[in-house]
Predict the structure.
Amino acid sequence: MAAFGALPRIGHSIEDRNAFLIVGGSIAKFTDEKERTYRFSEAEFMSLPHASITTATIWTPRSKFDGPLLADVLMHVEAAGSRLDVQALDNYSARIPMSDLRTYGPILAHSRDGKRMTARDLGPLFVMYPRDKYPDALNKLFAQARFIWQVRNITVVE
């Protein structure tokens, strides 16, 4: 995937390397007041309520993906904004409008077909949309760019 523009990297500390997911920007709940970020541990992230989406992508056959709704992750950090800037481990970045959360209900998948994903197989986190449920809208190139794998950072933008 080609990046649509570099996003600022959130932090570079040892705590960042130990975090499973880092959320920053327009949020009201922090684990790091100074950096104004919320660093999810893997255990905390896995304790969030989970949902499933069964769909195919241009990168995967029809599979069952499990993880929390992206909206629930943002609710946990008391986010408010108009879009998300999502950055992957390889620095790929894409923008997701907040309206997608209401319209499509994407999840932040950690598992595919019951198996935890790793960085070698599109994990550890993959923004997954119900592509098969909305083929006309989600098979377009701009929508496919929002299926972001190896998610590391999310910045909530006002």
In short: The CA atoms of residues 29 and 116 lie 27 Å apart. The longest strand covers residues 151-157. Residues 1-14 have pLDDT under 50 and may be disordered.
